[in-house]
Amino acid sequence: MAEEKQLMTFAVGEQMNLMALLKSVTVRVAKNGKQYLDLTFEDRSGEITGKFWDASDDDVKRYQAGRVVRLTGKRETYQGSPQVKILSLRLANADEQSDPAEFVVHAPLKAADMEEEINQVIFEITDQVWNRIVRLLLSKHREAFFTYPAAKRNHHAFEGGLAYHTISILRLAHNVVAQYPNINAPLLYAGAILHDLGKVIELSGPVSTTYTVEGNLLGHISIVDGEIVSACNELKFDLNSEPVVLLRHMILAHHGLLEYGSPVRPRLLEAEVLHQLDELDASIMMLTDATEKTAPGEFGERLFAMDGRSFYRPKENE
Amino acid sequence: MAEEKQLMTFAVGEQMNLMALLKSVTVRVAKNGKQYLDLTFEDRSGEITGKFWDASDDDVKRYQAGRVVRLTGKRETYQGSPQVKILSLRLANADEQSDPAEFVVHAPLKAADMEEEINQVIFEITDQVWNRIVRLLLSKHREAFFTYPAAKRNHHAFEGGLAYHTISILRLAHNVVAQYPNINAPLLYAGAILHDLGKVIELSGPVSTTYTVEGNLLGHISIVDGEIVSACNELKFDLNSEPVVLLRHMILAHHGLLEYGSPVRPRLLEAEVLHQLDELDASIMMLTDATEKTAPGEFGERLFAMDGRSFYRPKENE
Amino acid sequence: MAEEKQLMTFAVGEQMNLMALLKSVTVRVAKNGKQYLDLTFEDRSGEITGKFWDASDDDVKRYQAGRVVRLTGKRETYQGSPQVKILSLRLANADEQSDPAEFVVHAPLKAADMEEEINQVIFEITDQVWNRIVRLLLSKHREAFFTYPAAKRNHHAFEGGLAYHTISILRLAHNVVAQYPNINAPLLYAGAILHDLGKVIELSGPVSTTYTVEGNLLGHISIVDGEIVSACNELKFDLNSEPVVLLRHMILAHHGLLEYGSPVRPRLLEAEVLHQLDELDASIMMLTDATEKTAPGEFGERLFAMDGRSFYRPKENE
Amino acid sequence: MAEEKQLMTFAVGEQMNLMALLKSVTVRVAKNGKQYLDLTFEDRSGEITGKFWDASDDDVKRYQAGRVVRLTGKRETYQGSPQVKILSLRLANADEQSDPAEFVVHAPLKAADMEEEINQVIFEITDQVWNRIVRLLLSKHREAFFTYPAAKRNHHAFEGGLAYHTISILRLAHNVVAQYPNINAPLLYAGAILHDLGKVIELSGPVSTTYTVEGNLLGHISIVDGEIVSACNELKFDLNSEPVVLLRHMILAHHGLLEYGSPVRPRLLEAEVLHQLDELDASIMMLTDATEKTAPGEFGERLFAMDGRSFYRPKENE
Amino acid sequence: MAEEKQLMTFAVGEQMNLMALLKSVTVRVAKNGKQYLDLTFEDRSGEITGKFWDASDDDVKRYQAGRVVRLTGKRETYQGSPQVKILSLRLANADEQSDPAEFVVHAPLKAADMEEEINQVIFEITDQVWNRIVRLLLSKHREAFFTYPAAKRNHHAFEGGLAYHTISILRLAHNVVAQYPNINAPLLYAGAILHDLGKVIELSGPVSTTYTVEGNLLGHISIVDGEIVSACNELKFDLNSEPVVLLRHMILAHHGLLEYGSPVRPRLLEAEVLHQLDELDASIMMLTDATEKTAPGEFGERLFAMDGRSFYRPKENE
Amino acid sequence: MAEEKQLMTFAVGEQMNLMALLKSVTVRVAKNGKQYLDLTFEDRSGEITGKFWDASDDDVKRYQAGRVVRLTGKRETYQGSPQVKILSLRLANADEQSDPAEFVVHAPLKAADMEEEINQVIFEITDQVWNRIVRLLLSKHREAFFTYPAAKRNHHAFEGGLAYHTISILRLAHNVVAQYPNINAPLLYAGAILHDLGKVIELSGPVSTTYTVEGNLLGHISIVDGEIVSACNELKFDLNSEPVVLLRHMILAHHGLLEYGSPVRPRLLEAEVLHQLDELDASIMMLTDATEKTAPGEFGERLFAMDGRSFYRPKENE
User: How far apart are CA F257 and CA F263, in angstroms?
Assistant: First the structure.
C-alpha cells in the first residue's frame, strides 16, 4: 500500500483523500424526507463519522459495513468529535487495497507468537494442579482466547487483545518475580493466564463486541471460576484442596475491590500483585492510545475508564 | 426443668442462682501470679462472662467447656457488658438438668419439620433443571444444612439457623408470589433454597463457628456457585443454557450490592426480590433478638450488622 | 373497543393504525421557517413521540393535549427512544372511542374498593391515638389520596397510584405480621397508611405531575409529619406522649437512610419493616413495568430509580 | 477565691493542691476485693479522673457527685488521658469556696443579657408571621432555652450554651446582612433563633446531658418543625402560606446535607447562609476550646466533630 | 446610554431591540449546505445565543467576536436555554454605544479602590514575615490580580473577580476577628490575600478564560505555594521557620477537604476559618447571581458548584 | 553470634532464652503500689512486650532503652498480641553480643551500594533540567535520604527504608520502560527519585520516628515540591518552563487520588505509572513482612494500610 495519510492524521479543515473501511452504516431519513447514510470509517489510526446525504437506493445497497471505499472529504469537528464532510465516495477499485483486515487494528503480536510465548510460561507452572487446569482451559477456549479483544471498549479493545493483555501481564510478572523472590511464581502465572479468560464467554466476539446474556448475568469473573470448577471435575481434582482454592481466589480477587466486581478482596500476596499488574498494563495501554491521538502540548479526550481524566502530551522536545 | 430464672433475666445487683452451660473456658494468670478461669456461661436467654479466681489445678480440669454447672453469684456490669461476680460454682448433680443441648439456642423448628417443609416447596419447583440441581445439592449437604447456623454472629447464629432462615424466606416468598403473580415462583424458590447453602463450607460448623480458609478466600457466594457448576457437570446440564445461567445469577446477585460481595447486581426481578426478602428476614430476626434483651422504654445495644444502630423497645402498654 | 394493537406493541418498521390520546403538544418552528407539532401519544401500553410537519394554524387549534386521535404512521426509533413517523392524523369520529380516560393508565383497583380495603385495616389499628390520627388525616385528604400518583415518575406514577401503593404495602404487612408475631401490627399499619400521604401536598396532582414549592422546600416526609402534629393539636393529643412519638418516628424514618431524606434512621423494629416493605413493593412495581416493555431474551431500559440497572426478561419458555 | 492553679494547668508530674468539684463518682471493687472510688474532678479549666483506693463506707457516703473537695495529688497520664494520682482528699471547709456553680463552665454572657440581646433582634424580624412564631416559641421554652447546652458534648456543651450559640450566629448574621444587602434579614434572624430550639426537647437538660427518647426517635430538627406547626395552629396561620413554608425550610435544611440529618438541602440563599454560619460558629468554639487546652508548639487532642483532626497551637511568639 | 432593556430582561415571546456585544462567533454549515453563524450576545445582564442564517462571506467578516451590534429579534427558549430568533442585525453606528467594556460584567468596585482597601489591610499584617511575603507577591502579580476573574465559571467569573472575592473575604474576616478575639488576625488576613493568587497562573486571563497547562498539572494551590517558596528564597526567609510553615499551611489547606484538592486539611483555627469564609462568600455570590436571574415564585437553574441544587426565589411580597 | 532462636520464632507456651534489645522502657506503678517496668524487646524478627514486676530503683537505672539484655521467659499472648512473661533478665555480658545495631532491622542493601545504584540511574536522566534538580536535592539531603525510613510504620519502616523503597521503584521502572518504549524514562526516573524525598523533613528521623510540625502542616508532597522550587531558584530555572512543570506534576500527583493527599491527579502517563509502581512496591513489602510473621495455613494480622485486610500464608507444600 502506497504511503497515504491515515484517517486520524488530518488536521481540522484539511482535505482528505484515502482508502478506508466502512465500519458501520445506518440509513436515516432527513427532515426534508430524503434518506441519508450515517457512516463510520475506520483504519488503523482510528475512526471517524460522516454523513452521506441524499442516498439513492443503489447507494444504500453499495455502501455496506465491511466494504473498503475511497473517500474524499474535509476534516471537521462536530460537538467536539472528529467528523468528515464527505465530498465523494466510491467502492475500492480492483487495483486498490480492498482487504478489510488491512484497516482493522489488531494485537502487535501474531497469534502464533503469542501462543508460543504462553506455552513457554506454562512450563514454569510447576505445580501440576495449576498446570493441568491452565492447559485444559486454554485448550478448550484456544481459538477465542487468541482472537477476542480484552474489552468492549477501553483497553486492548482490538482483535487478539485478550491474549496480548495476558502476555503483557506475564512479562511484568516475570520481572516482579525476579525482583521479589518470595512470590509464588507458578501461582502468579497460572492466575495471570486465566484471569480474563471468562471474557471469551462474557463478550460476543472480536467484532461489534457486545456483552452476552451470560456476561451480564454472571460476569467474566464467575464465568471463569465456573470453568475452573468444571475443569477440576473433569480432572478429578478435589474442590476443597488448597491448590484449587488458591487458584480460584486468584481469579475471584483480581478486580481488587468489591465495588469493581470481585466477590472477595485479595487475601494472598500473589492475588494482590496480579490485581495491580492487571491495572498497570491496562492503564499504560489506554494512556498510550490516548496520547498518540493527542497533539503535543495538548490534553487529550476524557477517558471514562480513568475516572474521566484527560492526559497531557508534552511538547515534542521533552 | 423447674421454672428458674435465666441468665439474662437478672437485674444488675441481683443475686443469681441457676444452672448454666460453660460455653468457653480460658485459663489465665493474674497479676498476683495465681491462675484463674475466664468463663462464659450460656443458656437460652443469652451469655454472660465471669472470672473464677484462684483456680486450683483440679478446678481447671473440672470446669471445661461443654459442662453444665450450678452457679451462684451477683449480676454486675463491666465496661458496659453484663458480667457475673462468681460466689460459688459446682458441676451439675446427677438429679439436675445436665444435658448441654437444653442450654443452647436452636431453631424454633425441629430439623425433621424443616426438612418436610422444604421438600414441599421443592414440589413447586416445576422446572426440572432447577428442581434436580436443588435436590442434588440439598442431598449432598443435607446434614450440615439442617444443623449449621446462618452466620458466625448476627442473625440466625444458632444451630439449625441456616435452614430456619431459608424457610422463613420461603414463607415470605410464597406470600409475595401470591400478591404479585408475574414473579417466576420456581426460580425464586430454587434461588431461596440455595442462596446461603455455601455457608456449609464457608463456616466451620454449628459450634464455635469460625470462617474456614475456603470461606475467607472464596466466600459462600462463589462456593455455592461452584457447587451448582459441579451439579450441572454431574447432571450433564449445559452451563450456557438459560435455566442454569438464571439460577447462578440468583445466587451471585443475592447480596444486592457489589460492596456486599455480590459479583453482579440483580438484573432479574426474582433476583431483586430474593435479595430483599433475605434482608427483610435477617433484619426482623436481629431486631427481635435485640428487643427481647432490652428493657421496655430503653434502647438496646448497638447492632453492628444494622450499621451500629440501637433500637428502642416501647413501654409495655403500647 | 374493538381489539386493536396498542402503541407499544408495534415492532420497529411496522405500520401503525390506532386510536390514541394526545398527551402533550408543543408548537415549534423548523429550520425552514414552517411550524410543526411535537406530539406525545399515549394509551395504556405507554407513550410515543412523533412530529407533525408543516402544521397549519388550523392544525394547531385542532390537535390539543387531551384530544383523542386516529393515528397512522410507521414505528421508528430515534436516538434509542421509540418514535412514530406520522403518515396521517385526524380527530376521533363520533363513533370511535373518544373518552380520554380510556387511554390513561390507572390503578388496577377502583377507588371505592381501595377505600373499603383501607377502612378494614383501620379497624385493626386498635390503639386509639393512632386510629384517630389516621382517620382524621385520611378524611382530610380523602379525595387526593385516592387519585394522586405515588410519584412524578418511577413507580406507581399513575392515577390512584398513591392509594394502590399503600394497599400493596398493607397486604405485605399483613403477611409479615402473621409470620413474625412480635411485630406491633397497629403501629405498622398506621405508619403504612400515612407514610406517603404527604405526597398529596408535595405533588401537584394526578396529571402532568410536578413538585410544588412545599414539595421542594419541605419534602413529603416533613409535610406529613406536620400534618400529624396538626392532627394531634386538633385531637388534643400530647406531642410528647409515646404513641405520638412512635407514629412520627415511623413516618420520619421510612426512607431508611439519611441520604434518602429521612431525618432519622429506623430505631424501631416496625419502622425498619415499613421501610423495607415500601422498597419491596416499589421495586416489584418498577421491575414489572419495565419487564412488560421488554422483549423476551432482552434487557430493558436502564431504570434511574434502580441505580441505572437494566433488567433481563427471560426467554418465553422459562 | 485566691488565685490558685486550675485542674488542667498542671504539667505531668507536677504536685496538685486545689479545690475542685466532684463531677461523677462510681464505686467499684478492685481485684483485691476492696472497694475504691472512680472519681471525675471538674473546674472551669476542664476535667480529670482519679482513683481513690481502699474507700471505707464512710468515704463512699462522704464523696458524692456535686460536692466540692480539696484535692492533693500528682498529675499523671493514663493511656493518653490526663489523670491524677490522689494523695489526699477532704471535703471543703466552711471557709473555702464550696459553691458548685463556681466550678462549672457556663456561657460567657448572663442569661438576662442574652435574653435582652435576642429581644433586640426580634424587633428586626419585621415579618409578622415570623415575628409571632418566634416570640410564641421562645416564650414557651424560655427557661430551657437560656439554660440548656447546645450539645451533649462537642461545641457549646455548657450551661447556657444553646442561647450563647444562637447569639453568636445572630452576630455573624448581622455582619453578613450588612455586607450582602440582598439577604432577607428577618428570615435569616428568625431561622437562626429557632434552628436549634428543638434541643430543649432532644436533650435531657443542662447537667449530665443525654438524649431523650424524643431526641433519638425524632431528632431536634423535626421536633422544632413540629413546634412551628403547633405554633401556626395556635396562631391560625395557614401551613401552606409562603412565609410558613420558608421558615420551616430554614430549620429543616440547616444541617446542610441529608447525611447530617436535614430532610431537605438548602434551596434558599438564607438557608444556605444559616447552615454555613452555624458551622462557622461551632467550629470556632470547638477549636478555641481545644487550642486553649494545648501547649504552644503542640497538636491537641483529636476532635471527633472535626472528623478526628487535631489542631496545632503555634508557639507563643506568633 | 438611554435606558434600554437588557438581554436577560425580556420575557419569552417578547420582541427584542437593543445593543449587545458579540461574545463569540462560530461559522457553521447548515444541512442545506449554506453557512450560518452561531452567535453569543452579551451584556451586563447575561448571555444569550442565536443563529444568523444564510450568512454571506461579508457577514462572516463583519460579525466578529468583540464587536458591538444592534440586534432585533424574538426571545425564545431552546431545550431549556434562552435563545434569540434573530430578525435583524447590524454593527453599531457611530452615535451608538460601541465600547465593548460597557457590555461586560466587572467587579462592583474599581481596581484602584480595591487596591487601596487591600493596602489598608496589609498594614494590619503586623508580622513582618507575612507582611513582606504578601507585599512581594502582590507587587509581582499586581496587574493580573486586579483584572483576573476568580474562576472560569461559577462564582466571581468576571473581570476583577479575583480581587473582589479576596476583598469580600477580608471584610468577613474583619468581623470574625472582632467577634472571636483569639483568632490570629495577621495570619488570617495574609492567608486570605494569598489564598487564590495562584489563579493568575492557573487561568489564562480575564477573557475567554481557560485553564493553562500549569493550571491543569499543578493547580492554583501548589502554584501559589511555589510562589511563596520563591518569595522566601528572595527574602532570605528560612523555609522551616514557623511563620513560613503556618502561612504555607493556610494556603495549602484552604479547600478544606483532600477531595477538593487541598493536600492537607486545616490543622490551625485560622486555616479552618479561612476555608469556611472562602466557601461562604463564594456561595452567597453564586446564589445572588442565580436568584437575580430567577422569577419570583420560581426555582432557578441547577448550579453545578452547589451540587446541582436549584434555588427558590420567594414571591415579591416576602 | 551463635545461632539462637529469635523473638518471634517461639511458639506460645515455649520457654525463651535469648539476647534482645530494649526498645522502650516505661516505669509504672502497679495497683499494689510497687513500681514495675513495661518493656518492649526487639530483634530483627520483630518486637514483643513484657512486664518486669517489683522493679527496684537499681533495676530502673539498669534497664534503659537501647541496652542489650539476656532474657529468659515464657511466650504468651495477651489480648491477641504476643507477650513474654519474664522469668529472668540481666544486661549482656562482655562476651555476649551487645551492639544494638545487630538487633535492629535495616535495609537489605548498604547505604553505599544504594548510593552507587542511584547514581547510575542519574546518568540515565538525560534531560539537564531534571538531572540537575535531582542532583542538587539529593546532595542537599544526602545523609537523611540514606538513613531515614520510608514511613513511621507500615512499609519500609526501617533505617534506610526511604532509599531502599526508592531503589525498588527504580528497578520496577527500568523493567516497565523496557517493556513499554513510549514511556519517558528520564522523567519517570527523576520523579521516582524525588517522590518521597520530602519525608526527610516530614519525619523526625530514623529512630522513634514521629511527624514533625512541617510534616503535619505541609505534608511530604508539598515539602518536596517546595524543595524543587527552591532548587529551580538556585539553578535559575524558569518555574513556568515545561520541564519544571512536568517534574513538579510527577511529585504532586504521585499519591494518585486527591483523597490520599495529592493536590492533583495524574495527568501524564509517567505520573500514573509512578503512582502505580509506588503502590506496588509498598504493597509487596508490607505483605512480605506480614506473611513472614504468619504461620503456614493461617491468616496474619490485619494490615491497616491494606484497608484492614489480613493475608493468608499457604501451607508449606504449595
Answer: 8
Q: Which of C29, C31, C216 sits opposite E312 (nearest CB)?
A: C216
B-contacting chains (≥3 CB pairs under 8 Å): A, C, D, F
Structural domain count, chain D: 2
- Quick: pLDDT tens for F284-314: 999 998 988 888 999 998 898 999 999 999 9
Mapping DSSP onto H, E and C, the string for chain F reads CCCCCCHHHCCCCCEEEEEEEEEEEEEEECCCCCEEEEEEEEECCEEEEEEECCCCHHHHHHCCCCCEEEEEEEEEEECCEEEEEEEEEEECCCCCCCCHHHHCCECCCCHHHHHHHHHHHHHCCCCHHHHHHHHHHHHHCHHHHHHCCCCCCCCCCCECHHHHHHHHHHHHHHHHHHHCCCCCHHHHHHHHHHCCCCHHHHECCCCCCCECHHHHHHHHHHHHHHHHHHHHHHHCCCCCCHHHHHHHHHHHCCCCCHHHCCCCCCCCHHHHHHHHHHHHHHHHHHHHHHHHCCCCCEECCCEHHHCCECCEECCCCC
- Choose the final residue of a domain: D73, D103, D133: D103
CA distances from A279 to A283, B266, C161, D259 (A): 6, 26, 48, 33
Distance from CA of C310 to the nearest CA of B (A): 6
Residue D30 at interface with chain C, using a CB cutoff of 8 Å = no
CA angle centred on B109, ends B105 and B115, rounded to 5°: 125
Rounded Cα–Cα distance for residues B284 and C270 (Å) = 9
Using DSSP's 3-state secondary structure scheme, residue D63 falls into coil
Residues B116 and B80 in one domain: no
Closest-CA residue in chain E for F244?
E214
**With contacts defined as CB-CB under 8 Å, which chain B residues touch D29?**
85
Inter-chain contact B219–A263, Cβ cutoff 8 Å?
yes
Count CA atoms closer than 13 A to F193's CA, side-chain side: 31
Q: Which of C126, C195, C210 is nearest to C165 (CA)?
A: C195
Reading the block at residue C229, the C-alpha cell is: 402534629
Q: What CATH code is carried by the domain that includes residue E164?
A: 1.10.3210
Backbone angles phi, psi at E165, to 5 degrees: -60, -40
Q: Which of E103, E137, E154 is the last residue of a domain?
A: E103
Say if residue D170 is exposed, middle or buried (CB neighbours under 10 Å; 0-12, 13-18, 19+): buried
Taking chain D (318 residues) in runs of 10, the rounded mean pLDDT of each run is 72 89 83 81 87 90 90 83 90 88 84 96 97 98 94 81 96 97 97 97 86 96 98 97 98 96 97 98 94 89 91 82
Q: Is the ipTM of this complex over 0.90?
A: no
Question: Between B and C, how many residue pairs show a Cβ–Cβ distance under 8 A?
Answer: 105
Residues of chain F scoring pLDDT < 70:
1-3, 31-33, 79-80, 154, 317-318
Q: Are residues A82 and A184 in the same domain?
A: no
Assess whether pLDDT exceeds 50 at residue E15: yes
Looking at residue A95, which CATH number applies to its domain?
A: 2.40.50.140
* Cβ of residue D261 closer than 8 Å to a chain C Cβ: yes
Q: Is A297 helix (H, G, I), strand (E, B) or coil?
A: coil
Q: Is the pTM here over 0.80, yes or no?
A: yes
Residue F249 with chain E: CB contacts under 8 Å: 217-218
Paired with D15 in beta bridges are D74
Q: Which of residues 197-256 of E touch A (CB under 8 A)?
A: 213, 216-217
From chain F, pick out residues whose CB is under 8 angstroms from the CB of A280: 176, 273, 276-277, 280
CB A202 within 8 A of CB A223: yes
Q: Which residues contact F267 (CB under 8 A, 6 or more apart)?
A: A299, A309, A310, A311, A312, E216, E217, F249, F253
Cross-chain residue pair A213–B242, CB shorter than 8 Å: yes
* Nearest CA-CA distance, residue F158 and chain A, Å: 18
